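hey
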């Protein structure tokens, strides 16, 4: 039986290096990956990582994208928008608070938001990696709603139990 794809989405929250690293690890292990990047996600990839296009992203993540399939975030009719498309789940890393709000309210305006909606309705795993601080009451309520709907909120707040030599 073939491995189900993981949906990876990068949105317009600071923390693009987290998404790049996750894509690198998925590609390195040849995990089937459906990749989506929002318009603002691309802006952050450029600002934070110097990555301007698919070619540069492919190069930054090791160059082997045999297991990666990219989708246009504007294509709400693409395969990840359908519940009949079987996936292992979805990670949105980094996840903007705007994306969290859209997921919490069920307002799918993009492929990323629709795919997240589908993952939740199909009872698959949805992991949201917000990096926003401080959090407003609206952010907290939206994160609560997504959690109540079945999402896992995994803030980009690294632990220090492993005693890193430096923090950059």
């Amino acid at each position: 039986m073939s491995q189900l794809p993981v949906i990876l989405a990068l949105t317009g929250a600071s923390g693009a290096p987290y998404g790049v690293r996750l894509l690198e690890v998925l590609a390195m292990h040849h995990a089937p990956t459906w990749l989506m990047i929002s318009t603002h996600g691309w802006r952050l990839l450029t600002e934070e990582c110097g990555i301007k296009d698919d070619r540069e992203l492919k190069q930054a993540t090791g160059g082997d994208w045999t297991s990666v399939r990219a989708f246009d975030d504007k294509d709400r009719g693409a395969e990840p928008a359908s519940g009949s498309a079987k996936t292992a789940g979805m990670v949105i890393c980094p996840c903007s608070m705007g994306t969290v709000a859209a997921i919490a309210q069920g307002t799918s305006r993009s492929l990323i938001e629709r795919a997240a909606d589908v993952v939740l309705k199909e009872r698959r795993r949805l992991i949201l990696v917000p990096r926003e601080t401080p959090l407003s009451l609206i952010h907290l309520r939206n994160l609560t709603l997504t959690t109540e709907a079945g999402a896992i909120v995994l803030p980009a707040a690294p632990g220090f139990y492993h005693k890193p030599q430096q923090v950059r």
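The domain at 6-153 is CATH 3.40.50.1950 (Rossmann fold). DSSP finds six helices and six strands in the chain.
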